[in-house]
Amino acid sequence: MKVASSKIEALFKDVFFKSHQTVLCGGFTEPEYIPSQNPSELHPHRIHYRSDYTASALHETAHWCIAGSKRRLIKDYGYFYDPGMRTLESQKRFLQAEVLPQTIEALFHEALGLEFEPSLDAFHFSHKERSEMEVEFLESIKIAKKHSNQNLPPRAKQFIELLLVQT
Question: Do the beta carbons of residue 156 and residue 62 sit within 8 Å?
């Protein structure tokens, strides 16, 4: 089943706009969270995702669901993203930090009946290294999903429930 990213945007707005003055917006070359200095209907906080990719919309929503109230006041939640050439060690740290958001993203995909593809962001590594990373990373996500009922942030649970009724 294919779900249009515009549908994800509308669902997100339905559940979170009034309570958090936040919108999900596609069509961008890079994902980015931009908080509003004066959140309102005309100037909401914005979550940008790549192009019109449903997976990017769900991934960025997962990051937003994890971010606490203080982090949601800071551009990109105050995190630094390094798209450059990571070492194997820094790549492992990156993937470790991505287990929770990508577990939530996987749950979003499942709720919509979509296949989940992990984002390793490891383009410069060899095929063998990427394959090994993916196996290990997917295992970490599988373990995290087993414990997700007690570890999911409330907004993630709320969005999953909404996505489930859409299928």
Answer: yes
The answer to the question of residue 83 being in a domain is no
Instruction: In whole angstroms, give the CA distance from residue 115 to residue 17.
Output: 27
Give the end-to-end CA distance of the chain in Å, rounded to a whole number.
9
Task: Name residue 162's amino acid.
Answer: L
Residue ending a domain, choose from 46, 78, 110: 78
Is residue 96 in a domain? Answer: yes
Dihedral sign computed on CA atoms, order 25, 30, 31, 34: negative
- Convert the pLDDT of each residue in 20-78 to its tens digit: 999 999 999 999 999 999 999 999 999 999 999 999 999 999 999 999 999 999 999 99
Look up the domain containing 73 and give its range. Answer: 5-78
